[in-house]
Amino acid sequence: MIPARYGASRFPGKLMQDLGGKTVIRRTYDAAVDTGLFQDVFVVTDSDVIFEEITKHGGKAIMSQKEHECGSDRIAEAVEHMDVDIVVNVQGDEPFTTKDGLKKVLDVFYQEDADKIDLASLMTEINDWKEISDPNCVKVIVDKDNFALYFSRSPIPYPRDKNTAVKYFKHKGIYAFRKQAILDFYRLPMRKLEAAEKIECIRYLEYGHNIKMAVTKDQGVEIDTPEDLARAKRLIEKSEQPAVNNGYRNFPMVPKVVFGKGSFDQLEQILSQERKDRAPFVFIVDDVFENQPSFIDRITLKFNDKLIFASTIEEPKTSQVDEIVKKIRSEYKQLPSGIIGIGGGSILDLAKAVSIMLTNSGSASEYQGWDLVKKKAVYHVGIPTISGTGAEVSRTCVLTGPERKLGINSDYTPFDQVILDPDLCIGVPKNQWFYTGMDCFIHCVESLQGTFLNAFSQSYGEKAYDLCVEIFLGDGMPEHEARAKLMMASWHGGMSIAYSQVGVAHALSYGLGYVLGTKHGIGNCIVFNHLEEFYPEGVKLFKQMMDKHSIDLPTGICSQLTDAQMETMIDTALGLEPLWENALGDNWREIATREKLRELYLKM
Ligand code: NAD
Ligand code: ZN
């Protein structure tokens, strides 16, 4: 029960103040519901405005009938005819109420001395003398079993002997009552000590009841003054800032990497150190290799190891991940020793996702987003056979789900081991080599021209950019050298966007991918070809590269779109806000209008 009075004496209307897009009272209500500790949560109020505010957002509220002196009276009236066991009073002005404190108060009723307890409440240690001596801060002292001895606005105990190490506790306005106790409380007239201190739980002590205090470390923020509100707003802003855009990133890197022509043959030895008893290794391999025994024979399967060929006709889907995970689970009793992905960006992403989903329950679609993965993935190894995406080094695995195309971006996503063997890219068809290679070039252009750029991304981005120019526009570079250099360019390009972001080409290309199923590499090329106004230098070089390698791109791919498809495409692209913000700065909406995007798509 959340008692909520409209007219607080010190800060009238405080519960209806805006706190980061929601009123204070609604934040408190949602916080209480979100703890998952209660069968029901109600706001009990004397105000139509507060009643409306809660009910119109789907919450439960009760109008109190009578004038009441304090919150507990308000609650007593409300629960009198309800079938309840324990009632918890959460203050309406505590929007940061957390599960920890509430759970501690409730746990009191399940401990040994529970039958002696009528009321439980919460306290937190304070050390600042300013707070200890502040009459707005109610202090509490307890006996050896944490039963309350007294509550006061004065500092208690008084520190006459400065050498006694005494702790001060602040009382937090959360109470849990047995139903009978709150009804008793309601009927008992107020006595002198309560009247003098204006602290309602003193009434209990004055009538000889027991109040058990639980201790929390959670300081919380009560909104008593406009200054408190300003402080709370800053807290909310901080907590709601996506970790992506707070200016700093703390990301893991691939801890082990082998590089070099022929290094693929190190795999057997690397895996032998990671094998757990009889738990198999599962190899997820691009099915383009299915009929290439010369390559497949180099993968040594031992004991019950398993080889799965996966198709890359379409980009990886959450359903495809779920299916592979189901297959592995049904075939083996224990978790695999590891997952090894061998292929391009599609297969590498698939392998990362499978390794995550083997230890996390539910569908892969539930983990699309930032930091939603809670459990460490199964050991996973990435072995690229085509270069450019940077998927071998990145913290994400891009998946198309039922609702969106979005990566599982988490600390557990990156590979534990990568093997970079340039010779594995020997059979890549020329067009595909170009499209995937251009993904790297475009990553660099977008990162280097972006507003998020810093020295970290720049140092990786510039190196990768130079390598791409050398590979795609240089003359006379031997093929084996070009393969090795593109492999490193892909790695550096991936590192560059780890600390910045991609831009306009990727945003528009995601739109094509979502509506038309256009694959990432070729989609980026189709888009980038028309982005002179955003990336003049990059697009000029790109056109030269196309010429030099006689690459043709499809044209008119958006000419047959229905209006609805075009709108979806524009929505998909504009939905990728960080990409636009990186590309065009804070005022990106003024440049990237719907008309602008439509015009660009129609050119493609
Ligand atoms: P891909 O993995 O789809 O492979 C492209 C084609 O090349 C496929 O037909 C494949 O069979 C073939 N191929 C691969 N290696 C070959 C070889 N050695 N010989 C012959 N054919 C070979 O394409 P991609 O461009 O590497 O990856 C695109 C995917 O990567 C997209 O799904 C995209 O979303 C994702 N991506 C992920 C990240 C990330 O950070 N995780 C970054 C960029 C892109
Ligand atoms: Zn890309």
Write the layout of secondary structure elements.
Blueprint: E1 2-4, E2 18-19, E3 22-23, H1 24-34, E4 43-45, H2 48-55, E5 61-63, H3 71-79, E6 86-89, H4 99-107, E7 119-126, H5 129-132, E8 139-142, E9 148-152, E10 168-178, H6 179-187, H7 192-197, H8 202-206, E11 211-215, H9 226-240, E12 256-259, H10 267-272, E13 281-286, H11 293-296, E14 306-310, H12 318-331, E15 338-343, H13 345-357, E16 369-370, E17 380-384, E18 398-400, E19 405-409, E20 417-420, H14 430-448, H15 455-473, H16 479-498, H17 504-516, H18 520-528, H19 536-548, H20 563-574, H21 577-584, H22 588-591, H23 594-603
Parallel strand pairs: 1-4, 4-5, 7-11, 12-20, 13-14, 13-15, 15-17, 16-19, 17-20
Antiparallel strand pairs: 2-3, 6-10, 7-10, 8-9, 8-10, 18-19
Helix pairs in contact: 3-6, 12-13, 14-15, 14-16, 14-18, 15-16, 17-18, 17-20
Bound molecules: nicotinamide-adenine-dinucleotide and zinc ion (ZN).
Zinc ion is lined by residues 389, 439, 443, 506, 520.
State the end-to-end distance: 59 Å
Q: Beta-sheet strand percentage?
A: 5-15%
List the total number of helices.
Answer: 23
Low-pLDDT residue intervals, each spanning 5 or more residues: none
Number of strands: 20
Are any ligands bound, and if so which? nicotinamide-adenine-dinucleotide, zinc ion
Mean pLDDT: 92
Structural class: alpha/beta
**Share in helix:** 25-40%
